[in-house]
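User: Could you walk me through two proteins back to back? I'd like the raw sequence and the structure tokens for each, with a short line separating them so I can tell where one ends and the next begins.

Assistant: Of course. Protein one, sequence then structure:
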Amino acid sequence: MRAHEKSLRKFYDLTGKGSIGWKASAEIIGAPDLHVRAGSTLRLVCTILHSTETPLYVFWYHDQRMINHDAGVKVTIDRSTSVLQLQDADTTHSGNYTCDPANAVPAYINVHVLNATEEENPAAMLHASSSGVSTALFMTIILIVAIHVTLSLNS
């Protein structure tokens, strides 16, 4: 299935009567990328949208391995939300996390656990986040234009 087809599948589903209706889907707050500090608590909140009933189960995966019952992992679920908590995150907790409810299209998030040295080094943060690179590039261009205009006005 192509990426755009998966995207459409997330929101629409043909019903038995041929009409288009909403398909239940999961959404993880902070997706697609979340950066957390090593040693902190990793808390992922998965909201189940457009569901008419509480899911029978919500499975959580880390890099395609189910982790619901792993040591140090706490999972809570209510009618429309599942929360995954990991105490004392370290770099081994980096990777892709999936929230897979029984009655909904799953959701994904990429978690990046950063050591203190990466946190203190702005270049590491920019490397870890492509949107950070875009922002830094944009700000650099603005600064260069401002300097050029200032020098042109003073000449």
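----
Protein two, same layout:
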Amino acid sequence: MDNILISNHHLEMVLSALEKRLEARKRQRLEQQQQEQQTPTPHRQRIQNFLPPSSDGLFDNDELLTDPSQHTSNDISQDQGWDDTGTSHIISMGVSSAFVKKLKETVELADEAKETLDKYVQASTLAERLTMQYALSLSIQGKINSIVEQREANWKVSSSLKKIITMYAKGYVLSSMARFYISCAPDRIIMNILRSSNVKELPTEEDITGNSILQSSIGRALTNARNQAKDHILSTTSKAQKQVPEDERDLGTVAQALIGDFVDIPCSLALLYRIAIMRGVIDTEPENVVKTAKFWPAVDKEMASRLG
């Protein structure tokens, strides 16, 4: 039987290996204990979800732990955001100069607007850009209020211009050249005549509100002139409740009565013919046409059939 001889050197090697294994196991147990001690509580774990990935070490600052909104960035290229689950996101704030240049060309901005856009792009945070947008909305609201105030104090028809409009409206209704009284937009015709005649006190052509007021005033004057003509012609027919004397019913006398002191309107055969057409419509049409707004369209229709 062979004898097993264990030298001192071999024994030392075995003991050394055992010591290393014990030391490794001790270090492993110590690391495990340290890891358990460093495991974040549920409160800290929830707050950690709100912090960006680069926020290592921020747990030493209790203020940042209790209010994640205090973690701000002055970096012009990005801003921080959180969704409803507490997950953080990096919002890019950088805009390329090529994109800005293309945008300016596409929307055809004025020089002042281009400068405003440059300032907006250079804003370093999302909060600054939102503030600029809010300021712009306030500016727009102010301009709208200013327009409303201007409309309240806008152009008005003077008494002298009103007399001129009344005269032109009567002149149109009794014109020997008139072919229609409703269909041809006579209010616009008179507006053009007033401008070509260089009548004073008219609104500028760029004043949309003023021109709308002027057109409405002309429309009312035309309505009055048409009603006066119809009422007098009606009084010379059998349909009138109160007829004028018989010697005032001939076309010439009717025309003179309509013209009155208006010396610029000639008592022509053409005018007498138009008065005869109006009287014919009164005689032939029922009352629901003669005494309503349907009368003048009926006259226009008769004018078109007779004058072409």
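The chain has a mean pLDDT of 79.

Let me know if you want the two compared in more detail.
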